[in-house]
Amino acid sequence: MKKLAAKQVEMTKKTNEVKEKIKKKYEDMKRVLDEDLRITLTQLDTEFEATEKLVEEKIEDCYHLTQELDQELMNAGTQNSEIDQRISESLKKSDPDLIQTDDFRNQQLLSLTINLLLFIRSQIPISKKLFQTYAADVVLDAGTAHPKLIISPNGDSATYTENWQEVPDVPSRFDNTLNVISQQALSEGRHYWEVEVSGKTYWEIGLTYPSIPRKGKEKEEDCWLGRGKESWCVEYFNGDYTAWHDGANHELPPLSGRQFHRIGVYCSFPGGLVCFLGADTMTPIYCFCTGTFTDSLYQALCPGHDNEGTNWKPLRICDASRSAPVL
Question: What is the pTM (predicted TM-score) of this model?
Fold first, then answer.
């Protein structure tokens, strides 16, 4: 117990040290950006001050010239051609259209700023780049799919159909809940995968031990993802997200009304962790801290029923090693 307590203290210390170092790097980046902003705005202000001074000089010149012309007119009694010429020349010299700011340079600065923003956005969130290194290949096992699910030939999508398909009634097949699991199990290390959920109003995505019940003759809810001790999932239904494990539901905040295009699932065997994220922006949805996994894990999907005609699109496995295109 003493060794475990010491290990806990050590892990806390190391985690806090890493957090502090990362925090300082972000503060350094902010200082660099703030300084670059100061320099850029100073350059713009300097050019504006120079242009403003030129305008003020022109106004002052026009004022003095007006006084001179008024005096000459008073002395001459009538306006003559020489005065007309001087007025014409003065109007030309003081034409506001002759005073220009360097719009081309300003647009260059703006363009460079936009490029910098796009570059920064392409670099974050940092967690996205980290999780991409854990990308797992996921192939759905058609032999486990409920008879009302159509699994694509290459095992990368699951689609609900109203027709009960003629498929072998094998022990591995779910028969009362619209589930399908992966062919390969995860047993060690860290793994990350993503599922395309665009255009759907109902789905469940998660991880499960191989011992999850497949047949629902007695306790059919035990077959549902997250309803037993064997599985973890996040459910989306008509705009609401709910996390499930061991029959306990965790209602989640509305996430600012977000309906993500991709859902990411991260699993860490060393950390005993199952995390669900909105992969579009790596927004955390829910994390289960499970301690130690007692068996291997399979990726699991439930594309849901038709939901009154709003939920016909498939759930599709994505290449998690690559970022989703900007929509």
Answer: 0.73
